[in-house]
Amino acid sequence: MKNITYRLFKVACLTCLLISYSCKDSNNDSQAPGKIEFLSYESTSGGAIIHFNAPDDSDLLYIKAEYTNSRNEKVFKVCSVYESQIEVDGFCDEENHSVTLYAVDNKQNYSAPTHITITPGRSYIYLIQDNFDVDIILGGVRVKWNNPTGKTVFVYLNYSDEDNSYERILSSSGTDASFNIRGLEEKEYNFSFIVEDFNGNKTDEKNIGMLTPLLEQKIEKSTWTLVKSMSANGDKYEGKMVNFFDDVIDTNNDASDNSYFVIHRDENGGQLTYPLNIVIDMNKQAVISRIVVWQRAFYYISSDLPAANSSYNQYYAEDNMRAFDFYGSNDCKNWTFIKACDIGDGNRDADGNLPADRLQEALDGHEFELEEMSDAFRYIKIAITASFGSETQICSSEISLYGLDNQ
């Protein structure tokens, strides 16, 4: 028995030595992969797509392209061994550029280099500069551009009046970008812009010239009346439907400014059936450019104790209005759809706290801009399509409209 045990011990030791030697030999592998075979390339906007054949090595890990971009920075791109092409970018000229390709294995052994020369196509920052457009709108300007590559771009929009200079940084990775710059007065501003790609290449500043935004007005609400026969009943508890347009915005500091409607299922057929319509006769015509709504803010500690808890608020609570469709009409019969609006989640944390940006948005009012100015309408309809979850009641504090009044 002792001899058998001894022989087994010797076999185990020998096996361990062989495994150790094999691992050591593998870890010290210094055999470089084969060289990459270059096939062709196609120019792209600010770069190129290089086609190649990778070497047939079992431990090949990735393909690497090294080059110097237009900012004289040494950079690289990598792609999987399962790819047959690799894209290089970061160029803002149409000159010849050297690119070196390597095959790299699991032990970081590099193949012999494959040197090629590529000529990139005209950079998309210049394509954007060519089709960049600024139009005047109510209270500002609309900036638009087309980016056929769909790559991230930054636009520095500069504008100035007689007294001050301003800069807005706009970013998009879409093929078609559109931004409304609001809050401008009805006076001349000089506009210019610079386009920058993700690699830091920039165009020269291009002057657009002098533009005068159109006057945007807050639609005055003293003439507004509720069309009760076409509206849900929002008069429950302290809530009143007319509070939705009384220019009093609810806060959570105390009960003195409670100004919101409460659409309760008990007053509306026993259940909340969407859409819940609020129809308003403005008793005049108005052109609409944007919509702003404020949530109910005041939070009661309990139904028996209507005292304020200033450390909490009702924003994004389950019985606040979340989403609605907005319509306009001139006869209260034929309605034109204008915009679908959704406030979005509040994203409270586990302790019930709101992120700073979502709290600020609730305080400032949730703004919904129209892509184009509406026609002139006398009647508006807010068709509520969702709350934040309540099946019992739905509330909201205030709505304001902006555009051209008394049209």
Report what the structure shows.
11% of the residues lie in helices and 43% in strands. With 407 residues, the chain is mainly beta. The chain folds into 3 domains: 37-118, Immunoglobulins (Immunoglobulin-like, Sandwich), CATH 2.60.40; 124-215, Sandwich (Immunoglobulin-like), CATH 2.60.40; 218-404, Jelly Rolls (Sandwich), CATH 2.60.120. Strand 19 and strand 20 (305-308) form a beta hairpin. The protein is elongated, with a radius of gyration of 33 Å. Residues 1-26 and 302-310 have low confidence and may be disordered.
CATH class of the largest domain: Mainly Beta
Q: Give the termini distance in whole angstroms.
A: 109 Å
Radius of gyration: 33 Å
Helix percentage range: 10-25%
List SSEs in N-to-C order.
Answer: HEEEEEEEHEEEEEEEEEEEEEEEHEEEE
Shape: elongated
Percent strand: 35-45%
List keywords for this structure.
407 residues; mainly beta; Immunoglobulin-like; Jelly Rolls; 8-stranded antiparallel beta sheet; 4-stranded antiparallel beta sheet; 3 helices; 26 strands; disordered N terminus
Write the layout of secondary structure elements.
Elements: H1 2-27, E1 37-44, E2 47-53, E3 60-68, E4 74-80, E5 85-89, E6 97-105, E7 114-118, H2 124-131, E8 133-137, E9 140-146, E10 153-160, E11 165-172, E12 176-181, E13 189-197, E14 206-211, E15 217-218, E16 225-226, E17 261-264, E18 276-294, E19 300-302, E20 305-308, E21 321-329, E22 336-342, H3 356-364, E23 366-369, E24 376-387, E25 393-396, E26 398-404
